[in-house]
Specification:
With 440 residues, the chain is α/β, with parallel strands linked by helices. It contains eight helices and 29 strands. The chain is 18% helix and 29% strand. The longest helix has 20 residues.
Length: 440
């Protein structure tokens, strides 16, 4: 079970936000590393430094389409007095057998092709007549259309310094350099670098698998017809999307009716694909709060340390919370309230950090800042509760969106920040500097 099991806390203990979060992050451990193919490792965290086995680029190569020449052969070249060189052939990207460029010679070279022996610099094709004898050109004709372009003569109208338009071997990274360090999150550029240095697999902590399950007999799936007293299930969609946004592989389970045995069996069925379980609804003090009923006394019957503890937190919204572990692998489970705003705020404060911790990230929290409150009236907050109000943040100012009600889904959809009102503050006047959690 969580470390809360060792605390001297009674059923009426009011947990602080920080105590609850600390208990979660003390319990949740990063997933064991595995070796993954590059594309499967996207979004994962490296667990070891990656060293460059081969320099990039691995050879001197041209950064332009043009002609590989000797510096002395184009010295003083101009449109009035061009240098006229013999073209000895083509050098294309990927070509193994290279031509030798001697005095008075040039090799037509393509971008990325190795600089041939004897050549010292590259002149862009735009500085030449392209071998056509008709003045400066804007580009090369395709070899398939004009194979004769690889022989004959070329007029060069400008001089070039040594190694102009040449990408030097190792100018990007050198063999033995550290390409990426442990703790790096692998995005597209990092995966591109790994491929460029020849790594087909990499050792990472995998993205955690998160199962999201909502409860309530009143819940109906979107696109279905609403009956009397029914509402659409939005929480499971919002939290599954939030889990994916946090970096997880998330699975959404359709809403489970208010029956404790059905809920227990559904959770047991889902454990096989879960590194973390998240439920929403059924954690308060009502007669139909089935999550609490189903999990309060369910631990790991064959192993010590299992079970879920239900708590009251000194926060608004999101006072009722549950946390613990279930199943033979002690899979962490976070039980969130059912009201949409309470559920989402709870996810941001507790579930997102747990997901990031499973990934092995050092910084698991959303960024915070200080902002000036812009509002028509003072904000009120219950004494002894840390309140999180939805808001929009821009240019150092934050404006509340909607009211304090925990059912206001529309207001939540227009918010990009949470305004934090501390436990010892009951009123916040416009113009006051407040703490803000940035959500996007």
């Amino acid at each position: 079970m969580s470390s809360a099991a060792t605390r001297a806390t009674g059923p009426d203990h009011l947990w602080s936000v920080d105590e609850h979060l600390e208990d979660i992050l003390t319990t949740v451990r990063p997933l064991e590393p595995i070796e993954l193919n590059l594309l499967d490792a996207q979004g994962c965290v490296l667990v070891e430094d990656v060293t460059v086995p081969v320099s990039l680029p691995p050879f001197d190569n041209s950064s332009m389409d043009g002609y590989a020449v000797r510096v002395a052969d184009v010295a003083g070249a101009s449109e009035e007095f061009p240098a006229v060189l013999d073209v000895v052939g083509d050098v294309a990207a990927g070509q193994a057998d290279l031509l030798h460029v001697g005095p008075g010679q040039a090799a037509r070279i393509m971008t990325g092709a190795p600089l041939p022996p004897g050549a010292e610099t590259v002149v862009p094709v735009e500085w030449t007549d392209g071998g056509l004898g008709e003045g400066p050109v804007t580009g090369m004709r395709a070899r398939s259309l004009a194979p004769e372009g690889a022989e004959g003569h070329v007029h060069v109208y400008r001089s070039a310094q040594a190694r102009a338009h040449v990408r030097a071997k190792g100018s990007d990274v050198k063999a033995g350099d550290r390409a990426l360090e442990a703790g790096t999150v692998l995005g597209p550029p990092q995966i591109g670098l790994l491929a460029a240095i020849g790594r087909g697999t990499v050792r990472v902590r995998p993205r955690p698998r998160v199962v999201v399950l909502s409860t309530g007999s009143e819940l109906v799936q979107p696109d279905e017809q609403l009956g009397s007293g029914q509402i659409y299930d939005s929480n499971s969609f919002a939290l599954t999307a939030a889990a994916r946004d946090a970096g997880a592989i998330a699975y959404r389970v359709g809403a489970v009716a208010d029956d404790a045995e059905t809920l227990r069996s559904t959770i047991e069925d889902q454990l096989v694909r879960a590194d973390l379980m998240v439920t929403t609804g059924g954690v308060s003090v009502g007669a139909y709060d089935v999550v609490k009923e189903a999990l309060s006394h369910v631990g790991d019957e064959d192993e010590e340390g299992g079970g879920v503890e239900f708590r009251k937190l000194a926060m608004q919204p999101g006072k009722p919370q549950g946390f613990g572990s279930i199943g033979p692998d002690h899979t962490p489970l976070l039980a969130l309230p059912g009201n949409p705003v309470s559920s989402y705020v709870s996810f941001e404060l507790f579930v997102r950090p747990a997901i990031r911790a499973l990934m092995g990230l050092d910084d698991v929290h959303r960024p915070t800042t200080r902002a000036t409150l812009t509002a028509g009236n003072a904000l009120t907050s219950p004494k002894g509760r840390r309140q999180f109000l939805r808001g929009t943040y821009a240019d150092g100012a934050v404006t509340p969106v909607g009211g304090a009600g925990s059912h206001l889904v529309a207001a939540l959809a227009h918010a990009d920040a949470l305004i934090v009102v501390p436990e010892d503050v009951e009123s916040v006047e416009p113009g006051t500097e407040v703490e803000v959690v940035l959500l996007g």
